[in-house]
Design goal:
- This protein has 250 residues and is mostly helical.
- Helix 1 packs parallel to helix 3.
- It is globular and about 50 Å long.
- The two termini are 16 Å apart.
Length: 250
């Protein structure tokens, strides 16, 4: 992986990183990760994608820890077990392919799924009745999260089909992403994704991560259930467009 130390003195890097990290934090605590896909595309404008994903992982862990603390009392542990187990399978599959599998095909497929499901509301109930829907979307989320830090769109597709209450949705998502991101440390370490300079950048960006989580938590408290679902659908579509654009840039 190319050296990223020169980024410390690059104002454009700091602008893109702070914007991306704050939006990710807002998304995590306020909209269940629907817009969290934005950070890596922004960072990829000034650094290699592998470095961008490695930079984001420690920050995601910080945001996850804070978000879980906020929503821990609303977690439905029984229903969470299945999708989390599926995500572990997805992470393992992606971990074996992390250094060899081109991400472009996955990006395009995930982008198309996200845009179609965001625009076609009647698909959501059908998804909930698919055989092993939790295993399907949990696994896809694990794969896309490991390769692209884009686990939000697949799990948003699944949660939208379940029509669960807003706070339970946010609680489920907070634990789901926390477990995934902790496990992702293993394949990232085995594939040599880390650099010491990345950790210094992470330390500097932690305040932006915590600010984003705080803003997201305040925003969701002001949203009605119907508005929350609409925003999640819009964010799903935006994430799909971003993934599609990014897939043709590299």
């Amino acid at each position: 992986m190319p050296e990223v130390s020169p980024l410390i003195a690059d104002p454009l890097f700091w602008l893109l990183a702070i914007v991306g990290v704050v939006i990710t934090g807002i998304s995590k605590s306020g909209f269940a990760g629907g817009a969290g896909v934005v950070a890596v595309p922004l960072l990829s404008l000034v650094m290699p994608i592998p470095a961008a994903t490695a930079l984001m992982l420690p920050l995601l862990l910080v945001m996850d820890a804070r978000t879980v603390l906020l929503y821990r009392r609303s977690v439905d542990w029984a229903s969470l077990l299945q999708i989390t187990s599926a995500a572990v399978v997805g992470i393992a599959l992606a971990g074996f392919a992390l250094s060899a599998l081109p991400a472009k095909s996955l990006q395009i497929a995930l982008a198309v799924f996200s845009i179609v499901f965001a625009l076609w509301q009647r698909l959501m109930p059908l998804l909930g009745r698919l055989p092993a829907a939790a295993w399907l979307w949990g696994t896809v989320s694990g794969v896309s999260s490991t390769l692209l830090h884009a686990g939000g769109p697949p799990i948003t597709i699944y949660f939208l089909s379940q029509k669960i209450e807003k706070r339970v949705w946010l609680a489920q998502a907070s634990v789901f992403f926390a477990v995934m991101n902790v496990i992702k440390v293993i394949p990232y370490t085995l594939n040599g994704q880390w650099q010491q300079s990345l950790f210094w950048l992470d330390l500097a960006l932690i305040p932006a991560a915590l600010l984003g989580v705080r803003l997201g938590y305040r925003l969701q408290a002001r949203l009605a259930e119907k508005d929350f679902m609409l925003i999640c659908r819009v964010l799903l579509g935006v994430a799909g467009v971003l993934l599609l654009v990014r897939s043709f840039q590299h």
